[in-house]
Amino acid sequence: MSGLRLAVLLVAFPLASLAPVASAEGLSGPYIDHVGWVGGGGASLRVYPSTVGRAVAGQLDKSAVQSEQAWREVLAWAPEADTPGMRAQFVCHWHFAELPQPGKTSWNLEAWRPFVDDDAMVASRCNPGGAEEVF
Questions:
Q1: Which of 30, 32, 94 shows the shortest CA–CA distance to 60?
Q2: How close are the terminal C-alpha atoms of the chain, in Å?
Q3: pLDDT at 42
Q4: pTM value?
């Protein structure tokens, strides 16, 4: 991880808010319990992680393989979500959402959000282009 990305991560997700770290090793999916679309024109895909998904997402040592498997599970429920911006939001939530706010009901992905680089994604707390939508 680059020094800049780590600095952005620490500003967006302060260490004081991080949950205790355990190992994600040996935990396998399904990582996603279900998903559902809500809202009108700026529809939001609510991603509901399974218990195992939350356990893995809350760990710092999760693998790229687990992230890719979780994204494939999202797409099995909502194939229309297969866009670079939606995937980037999901990956950001997968890596960071359970650390400062464990147990958040859903991870919310919006197709209208801009596709941004990793540093901008983390700085926006996985919500580039505006605050998280509330329905």
A1: 94
A2: 35
A3: 64
A4: 0.77
